[in-house]
Design a protein that fits this description.
Shape: globular
Order of helices and strands: EHEHEHHEHEHHEEEHEEHEHEHEHHH
Strand content: 5-15%
Number of helices: 14
Number of domains: 2
CATH topology of the largest domain: Rossmann fold
Distance between the termini: 10 Å
Length: 424
Amino acid sequence: MTHFGVFCPGAIGHLNPMGNLSRELLRRGHRVTLFGVPDVRLKMARSGLEFFEIGAEEFPPGALEVIYAQLGTMDGLAGLKFSIQCFQQEAEMLFQRAPAAIQLAGVEALIIDQVTTAMGTVADYLNLPFVTVCNALLINREPGIPPYFTHWRYQDTRWARVRNRLGNRLIAYLTRSIWRTVVQQRQRWHLSPHRYREDAYSQLAQICQLPAGFDFPRKQLPACFHYTGPLLDPQSSEPVAFDSSAFPFEQLTSKPLIYASLGTLQNRNWKLFEAIADACLGLDAQLVISLGDPNREVATLKLPGSPLVVAYAPHQQLIRRSSLVITHAGMNTVIGALSCGVPLVAIPITNEQPGIAARLAQTGAGEVVPLAKLTVPKLRAAVEAVLAEPSYREHAARMQAEIRQCGGVIAAADVIEAAIAPTH
């Protein structure tokens, strides 16, 4: 059996799928240690995983919540730049703290989130095998694929490939500080230089929690890349879970349910919640809005139409009962809805959300209303179309069937065991 060390961002959207994968490896007899800053320890307290705290000086208790609260007020390019700045700070901390922590813990192999860029170099320095996991939208670049941060649709044309190359150059420029940090650290440690950004990912196995049919057509992924589908726990529990036992299920009616959630990060834009409520006003449906924050006060909040508003909801339970999900196009909400055959209306806000929304539109399982073009009439038209037109649910059901064939967390654990076993 292998002792795995796990590294990923401290956001719930990364911790839950990585935690589910870790617990599956535990069930198979492996040992798993999650490394993280103090705020992550608190979030994962009930996960059952071993935890090794690092980065307390750089990210003291409460630091992540301050960062995520600020990100929650941002959108578009500003949000993307802020996220890149945070990843830069994390990379510097990991280069300083991770090697000694890994050695002290006695880890034999690493499982690394794709956006935790520094850790591939740390693995090379320690001569440890590692696997890359794409918990968010995969960021592997190729000329035929629009960059992950754009709303661009896939087109197999020369001008689209030129456009994509320009977009890839832009994201390379925006992330140059992270890349420079990686390059300099590899030089200090006398490691061979990376020629391409993709060299930072595992050459043993790369795991993505998308079904292949949700992604744009890829031609340059490595042979070790695996679309396993969503990394959900077979028992439907989550490593990071808040108490949602007080959710008023008795207030749900027999009308079609519209569930709206902007996740746990991009949930500070109150005008967006107002627009969602306004767009659903007068529909023959019941709107439930989750604010995505168990500490949020809802008693004094007033929204058009008096929808059922809760601070935090039993996310997947409500998705299963829904006729429609309105989302910011976060990976876990979109894949969670498609896993249940539920169509969506997406309002992407920042980071990889425009890219996820573009893929959703391509599948036919939902409509997209870009934040920059959002008006109540446009959002209402999208909601009415998805509720009324059977094709959206049919396409969502098609994605549901493909997801069921992918294997999910079981397949991902199989890939990891097959990749790591030959190295021991």
